[in-house]
Amino acid sequence: MDVALLNAEKGGASTGTRGFGIPGEDNFISLVGKLPNVGGGFAAEAKRLKDASEAKERENQRAGMGDGTRANANPVPGMSPDFDPVKVSKQIYPILEFRDRVVRNISAGISMVPGLEKLLDHLGESLTAFILGLLAPFVRPIIQQVSKVLKDGSSSIINASARSQLEPWTNPNCSDPTHSMLSKDHFTNVLNSCAGRVATTILQYAVP
Questions:
Q1: Residue 188 is inside which H or E element, if any?
Q2: What radius of gyration, in Å, describes the C-alpha atoms of the chain?
C-alpha cells in the first residue's frame, strides 16, 4: 500500500504536477471535465480535493505527523500526540465518496452515450492514480509511523530472545534453562547449526 501511494505521489513528476495526473495534457481533471452533464461539477470537486491534499502534504512537511491541533480528544498510542484519527477519517471520506460517484457515472455513461468508450477507458485508467495521489498525504504518514512502531517492538523481542539464548554461556550462575533458551528449531538460535549436524549424523545410523 505504501509503495502504491508513493508511486502515485511521484506519478506526475514528468508533468510538473504532484502525482495528480497522467503523462501528457490529458490529466484526470481535464478528462473528468469532459463527461457530459456532470463533468464540470466533477472537475471542480477534483480540483478542490487536490488543493486540500496538497495542503495536507505541506502540513506534513512542516510538522511531521502532527495535524496542527493542540487539543486532541482522540489520541492513538504510538502515534504523534497531534494525530487525530477522527479528523483524518473525515478528511479521507470525501475522497473515497468522490471516487465512487465518478465510477458510477462512468458505468452509466458507457451504455448511455455512444462513442464515449475511449474517453471513459482513459478516465478509468487515470482515476486510480489520482485517488491514490489524493490519499497519500493522509495515509502514508500513518503507515510509516505504524511500521516504525512495529519494527521497534519486534526488534526489542528479537534482542531479548537473543540474550536469553546466550544466557547459559554468558551467565555462570544460569541454571535450569528454559526450552526457549535451548530450542534448536530456528536458524537464529546458536544451537541450530550444531543440532542439525548432530541430527544428520544420528540419522545415518538410525535409518537403513
A1: none
A2: 27
pLDDT digits (tens, 9 = 90+) for 1-26: 777 777 776 664 434 444 444 443 34
* Residue ranges of domains in the chain: 2-161, 163-206
CB-CB contact of 19 with 129 (8 Å): yes
pLDDT at 26: 44
Give 98's pLDDT tier (boundaries 50, 70, 90): very high
Amino acid at 156: S
Contacts for 23 with CB less than 8 Å, ≥ 6 apart: 14, 15
Residue with cell string 541430527: 199
Element (H, E) at 64: none
Q: Give the three cell numbers for residue 169.
A: 554461556
Span 148-189, pLDDT tens digits:
877 777 677 667 666 776 777 788 887 766 666 666 676 767
CA atoms within 13 A on the CB side of 160: 6
Phi then psi dihedrals of residue 118, to 5 deg? -65, -45
Angstrom CA distances, 113 to 43, 116, 119, stand at 19, 6, 11
Q: Which residue has the cell 502540513?
A: 59
Half-sphere exposure of 168 toward its Cβ, with a 13 Å CA cutoff? 13
Q: Residue 74: CA atoms inside 13 Å, Cβ hemisphere, count?
A: 8
Contact 86, 71 (CB under 8 A): no
